[in-house]
Design goal:
Helices cover about 10% and strands about 45% of the residues. By secondary structure, the chain is mainly beta. The protein has a 5-stranded mixed barrel. The longest helix has 10 residues.
Amino acid sequence: MINRVVLAGRPTKTLELRSTKSGTNVCSFTLAVDRNFKSKNGEREADFIDCIAWQKTAEVMSQYVKKGSLIGVDGRIQTRSYANRDGQRVYVTEVVVENFSFLSDPPKNGQVSKNNQSSSNQNNDPFTSSKQADIADDDLPF
């Protein structure tokens, strides 16, 4: 069976690290994930998905992930239930984050612009060269 979730979104608040009674690190957060379409009013809508991270993943996320950071998470869906203070059964569905990635970098101070790079680096990089590749059409696999 397969239980895999991959999401890209932005946390709605800065993550806070907590510990269970047994000392296991955990952080829970809500990830805002934009929908691919707009509402009838022409506005972009989002889903707010509850996520939880444990142990080292929770430590690293709480240290570096801030509110509004664009991140990707990889994990699994988990369902659980508990009785609240009034004795009512509460059902929870959440994504257990196993891996995450930053999908955008914040602007860095002192970032080197293209104009400041040496011309020798630009000439050695095949992806920045403006020269046409000398490849015959018969050599292409498509």
